[in-house]
Amino acid sequence: MMNSALLLIDLQNDFCQNGSLAVPEGDSVIDVANQAITLFQKRKLPIVASQDWHPAEHRSFAANSGTQVGQIGMLNDLPQVWWPVHCVQETIGAEFHPKLHQSAVTKIVRKGQQIDVDSYSAFFDNGRRIKTELDDWLKENHVTRLFVMGLATDYCVKFTVLDALALNYDVTVIIDGCRGVNLQPQDSSNALQVMADKGAKFIMVKQVSTAL
Ligand code: VGL
Ligand code: ZN
């Protein structure tokens, strides 16, 4: 028997329309998230949401590192894409999308608080030095199977899925619930390919109820 949880990645205003790091069609996944939430709620299964949660001084922000948005540099010995200011703690941009049924969320996991390291994955920072509370929480709740969706396919969804697989979770990506930044046009399709190569399964949200 595998215990499933829904893992919603960064469904926050700054990644949606008019946000500072708006993902193309980002808003369209909110409705998909709500459909999945209803299914998990009915079965009393956990619903976890990650939240990108940066201090205003975060060094992944181009403005704080004297760099250009979208360029790549180094931060603390790690390759770093320079981002616009986004998901600053306690701002509207960091809040979940207003249409998300967030009262159904069982657990919120915040990431990216450390000023000099980015944190795409909901499990670890990009240097894999610090673990968030996600893995321990899932283990305490006997979760072995994750249904993952959200923003952005080519960053936070990708790295969360790869870490989940490395931690031996059974991982299914709800593909119509994901959208990517696509700094390069193929970034999201490449990310999905890497996830598949490492063992992730893909389904559409309408197939979730029979997969549970
Ligand atoms: C994300 C870039 C920077 C994401 C977060 O949620 O995919 N991308 N911070
Ligand atoms: Zn971020």
Textual characterization of the structure:
The protein has helices spanning 28-42, 62-65, 134-140, 153-166, 187-197, 208-211; strands at residues 4-9, 47-52, 72-75, 78-81, 107-111, 145-151, 170-179, 201-203. It has 212 residues and is α/β, with parallel strands linked by helices. The chain has a single domain (6-52, 86-211), classed as Rossmann fold (3-Layer(aba) Sandwich). A six-stranded parallel β-sheet has the order 5-2-1-6-7-8, with helices on both faces. Strand 1 (4-9), helix 1 and strand 2 form a beta-alpha-beta unit. The longest helix has 15 residues, at 28-42. The protein is globular. The chain binds pyrazine-2-carboxylic acid and zinc ion (ZN). Pyrazine-2-carboxylic acid binds next to helix 4.
Summarize this entry quickly.
The protein has 212 residues and is α/β, with parallel strands linked by helices. It has helices spanning 28-42, 62-65, 134-140, 153-166, 187-197, 208-211, and strands at residues 4-9, 47-52, 72-75, 78-81, 107-111, 145-151, 170-179, 201-203.
Keywords:
6 helices, binds pyrazine-2-carboxylic acid, 6-stranded parallel β-sheet, Rossmann fold, single chain, binds zinc ion, alpha/beta, 212 residues, 26% helix
